[in-house]
Amino acid sequence: MLSGCATYQTKIDESRRLLRLNPVEAIEKLEKLASEDSRDQLVYMLDYATALQAAGRYEESAKTFLRAEKLAEANDYHSISNVAASLALNEEMVQYKAEDFEKVLIPSLNALNYLNLNQEENAMTQVRRVNEVLTKLRIDEKKDFNQSPYAYYLGGMLYENERDFDNALILYKKAHEVAPEFDPLKKDLLRTSIKAQRPDELEKFKKQFPGEPIDPAWKDRKQGEVVFIFQQGWGPRKHPRPENHRFPRLVSVPSAVSAATMQVETTDGAQIATIQSQTIYSIDDVAIKALEGDYGRLVASRVAGIATKAVLADQIRQKNEALGQLAWIAMNLADRADLRQWSTLPQSFQVARVQVQPGTYRVKLSANGSSDAREEREVEVKPGRKTFLVWRVFE
């Protein structure tokens, strides 16, 4: 029985491979796993919603993310029987709860579904949901690395799109606090300070970013913008630690693609701008910090588990020596690392933005480091509005 128990990584591996080669088949496999009532249902549901989004099935993805969010809230509470089973066997015996940073990413990714569906009001609802989750994490005094600069930045762009410059400025400032190395935020903070009519903030940012120019075009209310959100590669994957199979470690997945290039042209071929995406949020960094931050709890749990196994085996041994020894061996064989994770997340979230006059444009996307990953789209930019492009490359 123990040798036949496949891990989460084993079950999901084929679907991940197919996402690049045959998305339809990958989605069919994931749908089956996501629909089964099990301790692992949440993690498969998150993988399924992500695959649907990558395949352009935005309505289905949005509905699945909403169901996953409700399930994540329900899974915050474990039954006593499941906790007891996890001590006797392994951590996989409790329901998957989702990491804190994953809970932030559920509405963050779902907002992209609604943007692709041109449902900006629903996208804003997801941004507000992100803020609720982040506020709860702060109240619960969770680690600072759970604060997502990508989520803040997306919210800032959406508020700016609605001409709510005060809230846009607030979220851009929060994004800068978490990711001060993300250079485009300098322009965003200066621009929204002007548009929000906050002269004190503007003077502060002028002093903070002395080399950053003020663009006169920011005052042009008709000017629109193309916003490119690039999801690059694969996030890190869990494997048993070589020194102790009871504990997981995260291993980065090599990526041939480091960034993407967005080239904007008029419909008659005149080049407007070429810009490269920049990383605002690394799933690699955050996931590894989250696992390391949880390591103390995992050690305590497995130490308690070993003690529980010893007591159970001893009780059986008192009645049957051979059976007691067998039970001790079997329970320890079953005590393996919990390898569950939202493993279809990208390695990083990257952004590129370019301001343009209203009109129709041809946008060429190419993944740097790949000869195959290219797309061309025609977009309409409306006066004073942003047009969002989302692209995922599984390389």
How would you portray this structure in words?
This protein starts with 7 loop residues before the first helix and ends with a strand. The chain has 395 residues and is an alpha+beta fold. The chain has one domain. The chain is globular, with a radius of gyration of 24 Å. Helix 3 (41-54) packs antiparallel against helix 4 (58-74), helix 6 (100-116) runs antiparallel to helix 7 and helix 7 (120-139) runs antiparallel to helix 8. The protein has a four-stranded mixed sheet with strand order 6-7-1-10. Strands 5-4-8-9 form a four-stranded antiparallel sheet, with no helix packed on it. The protein has helices at 8-21, 23-35, 41-54, 58-74, 80-88, 100-116, 120-139, 149-161, 165-178, 185-195, 199-208, 283-293, 295-317, 321-334; strands at residues 224-232, 237-241, 244-251, 259-266, 271-276, 278-282, 348-356, 359-368, 374-381, 386-393. The longest helix has 23 residues, at 295-317. Strand 8 and strand 9 form a beta hairpin.
Proportion in helices? 40-55%
Main sheet properties:
4 strands, mixed
| Beta-strand fraction estimate | 15-25%
Low-confidence parts: 77-90
Q: Which overall shape is indicated by the principal axes computed on the Cα atoms?
A: globular
**SSE succession:** HHHHHHHHHHHEEEEEEHHHEEEE
Q: What is the count of helical runs?
A: 14
- DSSP E strands, number: 10
